[in-house]
């Protein structure tokens, strides 16, 4: 593709990107905070585990009968 | 007559490109009716998080380059430059499956949606599909189409994949037809990583051209380009509500969060303590945490809302190359040949 044809494509792509409908930042942030809040209890990286037993990766101690 | 001077039409187009970019900047500013820091500063902090290695997955004999969690979060597939893919039972800390690749230089790996297959790709420029129901992955289906290395792969459904490549493109593959059915062009340099929205309607790409792009899979075009990183963007992961946002990591040492609906960067996760590039990024399942791997062998854990580092993941002995998060754990892979599974607290 020639340089001119390439640049025409770039202009058209940028024109399309410019024309998108944008939501206000305040609403977007509000929605994100709400999502995080609704999901924080299930996110064990944030909330940890209720007890060690709930952590399937917790090393099991104790003895077992052979 | 040879004329290397740009002609009038070219000059006009250069000016139009400049004007369109200015138009985008203005539109983004108009959507910025609030400042992210101000909107989030009064939220309660999480406090310091302690991440601990719970499982060590030893087996690769060379650098790990990619990993992907299985659908039930109890398996993980890792790719190493020993030319092997291992599928791990992460609880038993054992290999369930091993695939020996035709090339050592694998860079990307992905489970198929039902986890019966894995796809791999790398410096061989070939998308390979392996059947985990056959010993050692069976005879791979090898698909050509990219003119450069394959950096990232994801299945959009049972018979289609998207890939990102060193040939500057992303591609949608029809696996039954055995070929690329759409090329996503626009990046001006290597496309180092991609992330797929959970409903497969769009995907995000990270490039050495310093931008990230959002691509619509139904209408097959680029929806937006995100400028801001100062160096190569090499990692990308969606916010768990995939229509809201995604995060990127960059050689410039920062991770950033880009809001899709406001069409702009909201969070910039970086500080003076970090003096090296970030290599990969993962967002926790509630969206609150961003975990990123760095060149200095560490992963740092960020509070996405307060833009603060609140944890460090110490354990690897070399550069972190890949990371993936799910509800209860994070998996990392590094150039120390190991993959670790971490939990918090």
Please name the CATH architecture of chain B: 7 Propeller
How would a textbook summarize the main sheet of chain B? 4 strands, antiparallel
Radius of gyration of chain A, whole Å: 26 Å
CATH topology of chain B: Methylamine Dehydrogenase, Chain H
CATH H-tier superfamily of chain B: YVTN repeat-like/Quinoprotein amine dehydrogenase
- Radius of gyration of chain B over alpha carbons? 20 Å
CATH class of chain B: Mainly Beta
Low-confidence stretches of chain B: none
By DSSP, the count of extended strands of chain B is: 28
Percent of residues in helices of chain A: 40-55%
Rounded mean pLDDT of chain A is 89
How far apart are the termini of chain B?
Answer: 73 Å
SSE topology string of chain B: HHEEEEEEEEEEEEEEEEEEEEEEEEEEEE
Q: What is the helix fraction of residues of chain B, given as a range?
A: under 10%
The domain tally of chain B reads 1
Instruction: Give the ordered list of helices and strands of chain A.
Output: HHH
Chain pair with largest interface:
A-B, 41 and 64 residues
Biggest pleated-sheet summary of chain A: none
Tell me what portion of residues of chain A adopts beta-strand conformation.
under 5%
